[in-house]
Amino acid sequence: MIKEEPSSPRIASAVFRLRATFAIVLGLFLIALVLGAWQLSRLERSQAIAVERSVPALVSSQVLARQLSTFLRRNDELRLADTATETTTLHEAVRAISSSMHATLDQLPREASFESTIERIDQDLSAIEDQTDALKSLKLDMLDSEVAFAEHRKALETIGTVTRELLEPQLIEVGSTLATTLGGAGVALADTNSSMEILRLVERQDALTIIAVRLGSVVDEATQLARPLDKEFLEASADRLRFNFRNIVSMIPTLDAGALREELSRQTRDLWEHVAGTGGLVELQEAHVGLERRFEDIQSSQASVIANVSTRIGAIVESTRKDVSTTAVTFDRVLFQTFVLFMLVGLSIVTVVALASWHIVERQINRRMSRLTDAVLQTAAGGTDISVQIDGRDEISAMARALETFQENALALRRSNNDLEQFAYAAAHDMRTPLNAIKHLAEWTLEDNADLGADCQANLHKIMQRATRLATLQNDLLKYSHAGHGEDSYVATDPEALIRDQAELTDTDQRLVLTIEGDLQPMMTYAVPLGQVLLNLMSNAVKYHDKETGRLHVDLQQGDGRMTVTVQDDGPGIPVEYQKQIFELFKRLKSQDAVEGSGLGLSMVRKLVGRYGGSIDVHSEPERHRGTTFTFDWPCSPQP
User: Fold this and answer.
1) Is 622 helix (H, G, I), strand (E, B) or coil?
2) What is the C-alpha separation between 155 and 149, in angstroms, rounded?
3) Is a pLDDT exceeding 70 seen at residue 586?
4) Of 603, 605, 625, residue with least CA distance to 537
């Protein structure tokens, strides 16, 4: 009988100490949680500043800087445009970039620190747009003047061609006449008429040559004027042209009156109109130089404004970076403070846990539980007089007192089991004698009274049969009660030899053909109880076989620390509804009159298999095919 320990109000002292420790740890954790939440709110504010103001401002500023760079590149392309269409297209692209810059500027946060800067940038962008429009207008005018230059160049080329076609034949003709005159036979140099003719031809040749050279020079010089020039070159070129024109004009009257002089006079006038007349090259060049000067002035002014915009954008970027840097410093500082806070709380928790571990877990629990565990293990090993030296009024001391009570109960149970075992042996021994006497008396009666009636002899045979069954049941009960209680040895075993030995004991008439397969190499195992299990299974296969001959197959597979054994026969099988009952005590499928046995064999098999950590299963489907298969696992290891 187990003694009951009276309850005590201090029985939960160890639990109370642990709960108090956990409460302190929880309190420290809650403090850390509150302070951490406060620090995290500061981090969130810093992040909000960065996300809502600094980062968008920095991104927009960088976008604005890229757009300004694109604007400059497009503006340079506008300056170098060759056609009016290209100029118009580039101007539209520049205006689109300017509009994008205005839109990006509107996206900048209107912070007090750079509100005025944004307004100035907006004004500068408007000024840049006006300057861009002016540049476009000037560029189109310059392109128009270049078209006029081209027309003048074409006219100059025509005049040059006409004058060459006029003068070259005349020069050839004069040269040929002069050569003929100078080389003619019989011409006397003293002849006055001949001399005058030669002098006239020479003067004509000189005049034509001078006119041709001067006209060629004027055409070439004018052709140079038909291209954009700087002011210094324009003035020098104009002076040279005026000089050459005066020479030409002075030389044309020296020619004989006629078609040549008239045509040269007309070509010279046309040349003068193209060069120095109204809308001529000199005037066009002066206008073009003025356009270029205005273009460059506006570009210079625009570059100054763009530089101001770039400077102001840089100021916004720098201010934003300072804000980001300040936010980052604040974030790092708060993060460091949070880290220090959690470190301090963590150290406090570790200190509390360490103190609790030493004072409560180690001294109050571990050491006492160690002594209690040793006492429990010794009690489990069979000791019943183990002293548990644990004081106190907590759970461990209560378990120690309960263990002492358990030891007392175990000692009483051991005494009771010993008494029962002695009683079983005595009863078995005392019952064996009268059973043998009854059996012998029946045998003697049959031997001494051969003339007894058939009914009397049958009854005497039944008495002998029942006495034999009762003796068998008595022996099986003793075996079942001792099954698994012996100290079995873990020995080297030849599995094939063990199986054949048990088969020879059960099937003395060799009705069943035995086959053995699997991993049959020698092993270490509990050989004696394994032999009992195999003996009972093969005995059932022999006893319940309904034919004169049959097959008995045993398969053995060794694995990781255990082996799987399968015993299969080709008998009538076991119906499914009885397969769970066959392992129960005294359960039989056939009466004792049909098959001898006590109904304890399979119960003893399951008890032995279970004692060694295994399980046993049966598989049989007699409605489909004959045979029964038992499978169980058993401890083993390779033989060294």
Assistant:
1) coil
2) 10
3) no
4) 605
Q: Is the Cβ–Cβ distance between 204 and 171 less than 8 Å?
A: no
Distance from C-alpha of 467 to C-alpha of 172, rounded to nearest angstrom = 171
Retrieve residue 174's tokens. 């004069």
Q: From CA 90, how far away is CA 72, in angstroms rounded? A: 12
pLDDT, tens only, 365-388? 666 677 767 777 776 666 666 666
**Helices 115-183 and 192-225: angle between axes, nearest 10 degrees:** 170
Among 127, 120, 124, 64, smallest CA distance to 97 is for 64
Best CA proximity match to 566, nearest among 525, 538, 602, 594: 538
pLDDT at 445 over 60: yes
Amino acid present at 186: G
Q: Would you say 399 and 372 are in contact if contact means Cβ atoms under 8 Å apart?
A: yes
For residues 486 and 380, give the distance between their C-alpha atoms in angstroms, rounded to a whole number: 17
Q: How far is CA 458 from CA 68, 212, 575, 625, in A?
A: 128, 172, 34, 39
Compute the Cα dihedral for 355, 356, 360, 362 and give only its sign: negative
Of residues 516, 526, 591, 520, the one with CA closest to residue 552 = 516
The per-residue DSSP string of 602-619 comes to HHHHHHHHHHTT--EEEE
pLDDT at position 165 = 80
499-517 mean pLDDT: 86
Q: Provide CB contacts within 8 A for 366, sequence distance 6+.
A: none
Q: What is the spatial distance between Cα 438 and Cα 465, in angstroms, rounded to a whole number?
A: 11
- Annotate 145-158 with b (16+ C-beta within 10 A) or e (fewer): beebbeebbebbee
Q: How far apart are the first and last CA of the chain?
A: 49
* pLDDT tens for each residue of 13-70: 556 666 777 787 778 778 877 877 776 776 677 666 655 666 677 777 778 888 888 8
pTM of the model: 0.41
Tokens 């075996």, residue located: 479
**How far, CA to CA in Å, does 403 sit from each of 14, 380, 414, 457?**
18, 11, 16, 63
Alpha carbons 613 and 606: distance in angstroms, whole number: 11
Please, what's the largest Cα pairwise distance for the chain?
Answer: 212
Please, which residues have CB within 8 angstroms of residue 192's CB and are 6 or more apart in sequence?
A: none
- The SS3 assignment for 493 reads strand
Neighbouring-strand partners of residue 637? 524
- HEC string of 451-483? CCCHHHHHHHHHHHHHHHHHHHHHHHHHHHHHC
